[in-house]
Amino acid sequence: MGGENFINSIEIAAASEQETPLVPEVAICFENKLYRGNRTTKFNAEHFGAFVSGNYPVLAEVGVYIKYFGDQIIKPNFKKLKVHKVLDENIAILKLFLVSTRILSEIHLQPQDLKRLSWKHLALVMPRPYHGFLNLLKDAVEDGIILFNVTQCKGGKVDIGKYETSVELGKIGVIGGYDITTESAVTKLMYLLGCGFPKEEVERLLQISLRGEMTVLKLSGF
Hints:
By secondary structure, the chain is α/β, with parallel strands linked by helices. Helix content is 32%, strand content 16%. A four-stranded antiparallel beta sheet has the order 3-4-7-8.
């Protein structure tokens, strides 16, 4: 299977039409399917179906011939490749479950701890917060910390304001990650913060698709 994946990857990477790549984006080729890289999560280390793209269809399927799904593939921008080398790693991921919420919040989200550890930014994956925890989040936002709420599910989305719990999160300034994966959320935060954008601009760009990582409006110019 490994050799087949490698051969398929090379063939897809080399495929072009009128000197334009058929798939001008970062992708994962595995078990005869091509997934968008920033939409894909590895969820099994033993089975052949190791990857899942819960919120976005595959870009291509390999059979006797390779079938490309052009409507799902990002169109080339014909710009020279630009490598972004500056990434801000000063972020943290906090995964919670209902029973642990109180304990984790008391241990990890005390404002003095945030300041001591210099956690300017926080990628947050959170279920149902209780009142005291909301106050801690509110203090963190007021202290300049960016809170990015991402679902822990393999499929689905975070929709701030749709449900009662998320209404309160929206009021205190938590940013909804919609259907972005945790891996892409981390990478996106590191990239945006590394660009040196002010907090307000980072929060705006977190809610816009830059490279097809979210099913929302795509921003031109990036």
